[in-house]
Amino acid sequence: MQAKTIFPIAAFATGFVALSVAPFWADRADLRLLMEGLSYLALAQMWNLLAGYTGLVSVGQQAFVGLGGYLFFALAMFAGLPVIPGLIGAAVLTALIALPTGWIAFRLNGAYFAIGTWVIAEVFRLFAAQIGSLGGGSGISLPVTVARSLGEGREAREMTMYYIAFVIGAVSVGAVWALLRSRWGLALTAIRDSEIAAETVGVDTRRVKFLIYILTAGFTGLTGAFIFLQKLRITPDAAFSVNDWTAFVIFIVVIGGVGTIEGPIIGTILFFALRQVAADWGTWYLMLMGAIAIAVMLVDKRGLWGALRSRLGLSAFVTERRL
Amino acid sequence: MSPLLSLKGVDKSFGALKVADQITFDLPAGQALGIIGPNGAGKSTLFNLIGGALTPTAGTVQFDGRDVTALPASARCHLGAARSFQIPHPFVGMTVFENLLVASSFGNAGHRDQRAACKEILERTGLIHRANRPAGTLTLLERKRLELSRALATGPRLLMLDEIAGGLTEGECLALVDTIKAIRDSGVTIIWIEHIVHALLAVVERLIVIDFGKIVAEGDPKAVMADPLVQEIYMGISVDDAAA
To answer: Do the bridges between strand B214-219 and strand B206-211 make them parallel or antiparallel, or are there none, so unpaired?
Structure first.
């Protein structure tokens, strides 16, 4: 193995180990930030899998974040499900709801698909506001009993919450890596590089894209369920926010490097670093983010990791098959 | 015996523009067919219609006795129809070997030893020394060879080659002709679109000339090339001695 593989692997492995014991070195505020970061990492990995590999640019992933959140609240409040089964149930139901929405969205191509996914998300937002038993337009809080079930005392609860976030973040990276190393990964990478050629050599591109759409919807739903478990309160506007759950996620993937596993990780770190520094600047912060995204597009649209990889030959999550 | 490929009255229009006009022909298994015609005559369109990238406006495409008119390209590939693109479409972020691995994993190849099969094809097409290089780093000529290699890796029964000899030196062209002859002799049915007529005539047993989306001449290559109409379309291009 060469230095250009060892160094990045060591860096990512150190990060992984540090995160796996974070409750023992981080204070409460840091832990909350890390949980948010891990949630965004999962959202970014899913958006990247969808847009970066299959070329399906969705600006409506907030549909699945919101659905996951609302379904989790409903399962916990009305079906009395414990937290972990509730999270998994919300993910499965979100994936099932994605079947008909995908069926509609897949009638559209390119920019029309993007707008279509946004419209679908808006429909869900308006629908959520109509459900009186979930608080309608003003939203609802998670019953205290649900949060209490996570552990005895505040510290134990926070530790449990953190490890749920850690598993979601780690699985999002690990699952995408495993997928890309499988036979499916060959198909996905081929579609990323040339959809028409992939179809010509026998890849059923429509089927692959649809399955990835469903898979990413389910995992995005899981992440959304966790996000609102952490927030303890859900409203239609927060749950189906295009800014929070899609625009920021696209920013992360674009600056980190679209179409790579490492890109969303780097992007998440950059996004949170930027936010810590500049979040108090008000509107200037959002303008700065926009300017950075434009600059990345102009200088090297492969993003930070894409540029590093092509110039220095760096790689950490190796998927290449050699003869 | 029914032909491997059979087109009946195939039409394709984009609005008022007719790019395929009542194309009808049969191709028996094992035959090598050449297609020539001026630029924009509809040759690549024909491959798109046979391969499934385009659906005909009218008419039917049959492959191995089965109506495939409504099937997508991937399904036709599973049945054994493979093609190369005139403008190469490599999977640029994957290595040359991985490019072939996609084709052998998802094509018509079955579950033979894929690594060995890909290796053998790369040796045959002269790309073996590039096997672990990203396809994006290949030169244009290497990309054309990759198109051929990847099509072969799908395990084709019908191989459609779209102008793969263009830009080659005389020596490279002769080597390519030998490669394609060997593929033909292994029992693969071939349709080859090519402007380098002498290379084409060294391989094919039958020739079709297309102009304005229509078949204007068809039959024995030498007879077709001697046709005054074809000579007019191809004014300035003479039948090379290599064909004799």
So the answer is: antiparallel
Rounded distance, CA A318 to CA A211, Å? 23
Higher pLDDT, B233 or B61: B61
Could you identify the residue written with the tokens 């930070």? A304
Of B138, B155, B172, the one marking the end of a domain is B155
CA triplet B10, B11, B15: central angle to 5 degrees? Answer: 165
Partner B contacted by A259 (CB < 8 A):
yes
For the stretch A161-173, pLDDT in tens is: 999 999 999 999 9
Percent of chain A with pLDDT over 90: 80
CA distance linking residue B116 with residue A320, whole number of Å: 17
Q: Which residue in B98, B108, B114, B127 has the most chain A C-beta atoms within 10 A of its own C-beta, making it the best mutation to test that interface?
A: B98
Q: Does B83 touch chain A (CB under 8 A)?
A: yes
Q: Tell me if A197 and B89 make a contact (CB, 8 A cut-off).
A: yes
Angle at A291 between CA A289 and CA A292, to 5 degrees: 65
Nearest to B118 among A193, A205, A323 (CB): A323
* Contact: B115, A323; criterion CB under 8 Å: yes
Strand partners, B190: B32, B159
The answer to whether residue A182 neighbours chain B at the CB level (below 8 Å) is no
- Indicate the domain borders of chain A: 22-241
In chain B, beta strands by DSSP E: 5-14, 17-27, 32-36, 58-63, 66-67, 81-83, 158-162, 189-193, 206-211, 214-219
Between helices B114-125 and B140-153, what is the axis angle to 10°? 140
Euclidean distance between CA atoms A8 and A257, whole angstroms: 15
Q: Which of B149, B159, B219, B163 is nearest to B186 (CA)?
A: B159
Write out pLDDT tens, residues A137-153: 999 999 988 988 888 88
Q: For the segment A11-55, what is each residue's pLDDT rounded down to a tens digit?
A: 999 999 999 999 999 999 999 999 999 999 999 999 999 999 998
Q: Does B85 touch chain A (CB under 8 A)?
A: yes
Residues B50 and B70 in one domain: yes
Q: What is the mean pLDDT of residues A189-217?
A: 95
Is some CB atom of chain A closer than 8 A to the CB atom of B79? no
Mean pLDDT for chain B overall: 90
Q: Is the CB of residue B44 less than 8 Å away from at least one CB of chain A?
A: no
Q: Is the pLDDT of residue B108 over 60?
A: yes
Q: What is the pLDDT of residues A116-127, one digit of tens each?
A: 999 999 999 999
Domain with B118, as residue range(s), is 88-155
Size of interface A-B (CB pairs under 8 A): 98
Q: Are residues B187 and B74 part of one domain?
A: yes
